[in-house]
Amino acid sequence: MWVRCWRANGSRSLPAGSSSHYNTVIVGAGSAGAVLAARLSEDPARSVCLVEAGPDYLHLDELPPTVRGFDFTDRPYAARKTLSHEWQYTARATDRNLNMPVPRGRMVGGSSSINGVVFLRALRSDLDGWAALGNPGWSYADCLPYYRKLETDCDFLSSEWHGAAGPVPVSRAARENWLPPSEAFYAACTTLGALEAPDFNAPDARGVGPIPTNYHNDIRHSSAIAYLMPARPRSNLEVRGNTVATSLRLEDHRARGVQVLHDGQAEDVEADEVILCAGAIGSPHLLMLSGIGPAAALQAIGIQPLVDLPGVGQHVRDHPFVATLWETTEPGARDRLTGLPWQLMLRTRAGQPDDGWLTMLMSTPRDPNRGRGFMIPSSLMYARSTGSMKLASADPSVTPVLDFNYLSDPSDFEHLRSLARLALEIGHHSAFDGIRAGLRQPTPSDLADDASFEEWIMRTVSTGHHISCTCRMGPPTDATAVVDQAGRVYGVENLRVIDASIMPDCPSVNLNATVLMIAEKLADTYSKSPTASATRSMRSMPVK
Ligand SMILES: Cc1cc2nc3c(=O)[nH]c(=O)nc-3n(C[C@H](O)[C@H](O)[C@H](O)COP(=O)(O)OP(=O)(O)OC[C@H]3O[C@@H](n4cnc5c(N)ncnc54)[C@H](O)[C@@H]3O)c2cc1C
C-alpha cells in the first residue's frame, strides 16, 4: 500500500549574509528542474539554487485547487484555470490555424503542475532509436532502471518492469470504476481486433487498456510534490520563486551564473555550474538570448553570437491531435465520476504499415457547459514534420516566434486522417448504441466530402503539449546537436541543458515520465563526473 509522507516545511534560504555563489544554479523548477534540485542537494556538500519564474507554494494545502488536482464538478474549467500559472505562447499550427494557444506551466512544478497526469514510459523502439542516433547511453536497457527508480507502481508492485519505492505513485482506473463510455470504447476496440493491454508501461505494450496516471488520492503528483517537498528542509537548497532568468553569465565560453529579475530588480546569481531546465521553449530561448544559437539569426536581431549552434530552437517536435466530440444520453459521464474522466487508451498503427504508433485517448469533456458528452481524440505519436522557434527580439520579455508546422509532411497528414477516421468508426460502433446521442464534432458539413474532412483536420489540429527536441542531444559529428549525452552544451563549459528540449527525437508517448527519467539519469552522472564541459571549439565564435 502506497503511503505518501509529506514534508512541507517550506523552502529555506541560505543564512543571511552568506554569499549568493552556489555550486549549481538550476533555471526552471519544472519536471526536470525539481528532480535535479532534489537529487543534487542530497549531497550536503553541494549548494543548489533553484530559480523559477512562477510562484512557489511551500505546502500542499496552499496549492490552488486546479494545480493540486482536477475538479470537474463546479464552474467551467476555463474560468477555474489560474492563468498566472502558465506561460501563454501562441504558435502557427498550420496555415489554417495561425494562432494556436500553447500553454506551459509557470510555477514550481512547471508543466507537471498543470498537465493531464498521463504517465507513460517511452517504448523500447523510441529509446533504442535515441541510441541509434549517436547516443549509445540512452538505449531502453540504459533508461529502464531510472523509470523504475522514479515510480511506485501501485498496480504492478512486484513486476520486473516497475518500481516499488520511487517518489511518483502510478495507478490505473480499476475496471469497476470505468465509466460507460470507457466500457463502450473497450468493447468497440476489442471487437475491432485490438489486443487487451493491462499495462501500457510494459515494454512494447499495444492495444487497448487503462492509462497509467500519476493522479493519486485526488492529487496531481507533480515534480514539486513528489520530489521537491521532501527536499525543502535541506539547508543547502534554496528555491527562488517569482524569479525570471534573463540571460546566462558567460566568461571565456564558461558559464558563471545567471542574471535574474526578481520584483523588477536585476541580480546576478553566481555558480560553478548552470543547468537549464526551463523547458523546450524556455531553454532555447535563454541560450539564444545569451548568444548561443544560429549565429546569423542572432546577429540579425542585434545579439552578439558566442557559439554558433544552428540546432538551438530547431527541430520542434510534438504530438498533433484532432478530437471527435460526441453527445451522450448517459447521465453518468461526469455525474458518476469518482476520478479522472480519461481512463482508457488505444495504441495502434491505424492501418498504417510500419511507421510507428498512433495513440488514441478516450475522455469526457471537462467543461460542464458543453453538456454531457465524450471525446475520442486521435494523436499522431510519430510526426515527421518539424517546426522551429526563433527570437523576435533581444528583449527577454518578448516571447519567441513559434512555428510548429504540423502536417507539412504528407505522411503525417495521411496518418492523422486514418486515425481520425478510426475514431469515428469507434464512436459509431454498436458498443456505443445505448449511450451515443450524436456526433458534435466534426459537423455534418465537415464530413460532407473528403476535402471538407481534410479541411477540418487542418483547421482543428492542435498541440498535444509534448514540445521537445529544441536543443537535441547528439554526437559531436551531428551538426544539429546542441548538447552531448550528458546534457553538456557544445562550446560552453559548465553549462548543461536537462529537460524535454534535449530529447533526440520525440518519443511516441506523453513526455512527463521520460523527462523525469532523463533528469534522474543525468543527476546520477554527478557522483561519477562532477565537471561539465563538452567542447566543439570550431563552433565557438570570438567574444568581442
Ligand atoms: C497542458 C499540458 C498538459 C500535459 N499533459 C501531459 C500528460 O498528461 N502527460 C505527460 O506525460 N505529459 C504531459 N504534458 C507534457 C509534460 O508535462 C511536459 O513535457 C514536461 O512537464 C516538461 O518538463 P520540462 O522540465 O521540460 O519543462 P517544464 O515542466 O515546463 O518546466 C520548465 C520550468 O522552467 C520555468 N522557466 C522557463 N523559463 C524560465 C526563466 N527564464 N526563468 C526562470 N524559470 C523559467 C517555467 O516556469 C517552468 O516551471 C503536458 C503539458 C502541458 C503544458
- What's the end-to-end separation, in Å? 60 Å
Count of separate DSSP helical elements: 13
- Return the CATH architecture of the domain at 21-61 and 221-316 and 468-539: 3-Layer(bba) Sandwich
Number of strands: 25
Q: Shape, please?
A: globular
Please name the CATH topology of the domain at 21-61 and 221-316 and 468-539: FAD/NAD(P)-binding domain
- Percent in strands: 15-25%
Rg, Å, rounded: 23 Å
Heterogens:
flavin-adenine dinucleotide
**Which residues sit in consecutive blocks of at least 5 with pLDDT less than 50?**
1-19, 74-80, 333-338, 537-544
User: Major beta sheet, specifics?
Assistant: 7 strands, mixed
Describe the structure.
By secondary structure, the chain is an alpha/beta fold. Helix 5 crosses helix 13. The protein starts with 20 loop residues before the first strand and ends in a 10-residue tail after the last strand. Among the domains are: about 20-60 and about 220-315 and about 470-540, FAD/NAD(P)-binding domain, CATH 3.50.50; about 175-210 and about 320-380 and about 405-460, Cholesterol Oxidase, domain 2. The protein is built from 13 helices and 25 strands. The site of flavin-adenine dinucleotide has 40 residues, from helix 1, strand 4, strand 11, helix 8 and helix 13.
